[in-house]
Amino acid sequence: MDSNKADSANSAKPYNTIAREYPSQLESETAMFGDLERFLEDNGIEGDMARDIKLCVSEAFNNAVIHGNGLVSSKSVRLTLSANMEEFVADILDEGKDGLINIESRKKPNALDEGGRGVNLIYERSSDVKLSTETNGGLSIRLVFDRVKKKRNITQDIGVALSSVLVPISQEENMNITKNQSGNVTILNMTGRLDLASGASLKEKVQQEFESGNVKIHLNLSKVDFINSSGLGALVSLMKETRLKHGRMTMSNLAAYVAEIFEITQLSHIFEIYESEESAIASYDTVTPVQ
To answer: What is the CATH number of the domain that holds 212?
Structure first.
């Protein structure tokens, strides 16, 4: 596959291109994000376009690491990024077997499933997606993003509480989580992106609260600029575990882009999402935890 060209009519335009290979381990996601963010910045791609690219590339990358290569570190994932003024193209290639069959056979997830949303997000947010099987049996995913297309308008009528501020894309490698207390409600303030690695950190942090007897958890997402299906899966897992402990978990202050991802995946109807931290905390005095 020629990664320096997209299959569209403007393929004659010159592309800036980089290619990287990563071992199939969870830690590779952070390295991949670093390379991707630098490439986007170097090519003047920002805002919602950059967020969509980060979302879809991370979904395809994690699929390659976890499902394609089965977290076998000796197997690599090859990522090729190309961009000109009209489009951005990402090629993700794993070393698995029967990848195309496996990805096409996946069922649509139920509301409380912790995984399975990545493929749908890729198709929802990319301009074009091409799946193919390489001669070695690995799955190749090509993602194309039209840079000429008019930017989407994000409105506040999509059924969830939105923050009025669009959060700038974070360049931080990991999420920062700080804690404060309001009565018997533990408030976790999150900063950065919520993905595979930071989702695991969040689950560990909340588990520590459970072990201390704190089962009323509020997550303030005002400074979360990015979330993918791995981050969503971590939140679903925490919500289910909180309910098993007869506790309660709320969220507030979702940035517009993050709220839109909740709406696309229909999780906005599953979580208790409030416009502000204050309104969420006040609700603990009047709402009975889900049994």
So the answer is: 3.30.750.24
H or E, element range at 130: strand 128-133
Q: Are 211 and 205 in contact (CB under 8 A)?
A: no
pLDDT for res 40: 96
81: amino acid identity, one letter: L
Residues 75 and 114 in one domain: yes
Handedness of CA 91, 235, 264, 115 (dihedral sign): positive
Q: What is the mean pLDDT of the chain?
A: 83
Give the dihedral sign, CA 52/57/62/63.
positive
Q: How would you label 152-169 residue by residue, b for 16+ Cβ within 10 Å and e otherwise?
A: eeeeeeeebbbbeeebeb
Amino acid (1-letter code) at residue 279: S
Q: Which DSSP string corresponds to 243-277?
A: HHTT-EEEEE---HHHHHHHHHTTGGGTSEEESSH
Number of structural domains in the chain: 2
pLDDT level of residue 272 (50, 70, 90 thresholds): very high
Alpha helices per DSSP H over 105-250: 118-125, 196-211, 229-244
Return the structure tokens found at 132. 């193919």
**Domain interval for residue 271:** 176-283
Pairing of the two strands 76-83 and 87-93:
antiparallel
